[in-house]
Amino acid sequence: MSQRDEKLAHYRDFVAQHNITLDDALLVKVTIGLGPSIYNKNAELIACSQVDELTTVRENFLKKKLALTLSDKELDEAIKEVCQEIGSSVKTKFRAVFYTLLVKKFDKADIYA
């Protein structure tokens, strides 16, 4: 089993444990799109309590990668909703899962086609 397959298995376990509904094929594509960052513990995780982290998600992922043009307020609200969907008590939020939920939320799966 490759390192990426191990990460994907870990993400799938996380999704199952937290009753998160998402498309597994999309999770795979988003994970591949994240490249080597999934192997860096700090880069692999998202902290919903850190404003700088959420700003990075908004600017670099939602605006640049997904090419969303909604207001910062609308994008921040979507990020907040994903934080809540995963659960505020869940300290470890994996970037691949988080981004997959955002892709699903904005119906942007075609970017990963």
Question: What does it look like?
Answer:
The chain has one domain (3-112): Recoverin, domain 1. α2 (24-34) crosses α6. The chain has 6 helices and 2 strands. It has a two-stranded antiparallel ribbon with strand order 1-2. The model has no long low-confidence stretch (mean pLDDT 95). It has 113 residues and is mostly helical.
Query: What is the N-to-C order of secondary-structure elements (H for helix, E for strand)?
Result: HHHEHHEH
* Outline: globular
Q: Would you state the CATH class?
A: Mainly Alpha
As residue ranges, the low-confidence spans are none
Radius of gyration: 13 Å
Spatial gap, N to C terminus: 24 Å
Overview features:
two-stranded antiparallel ribbon; 6 helices; single chain; mainly alpha; Recoverin, domain 1; 2 strands; 113 residues
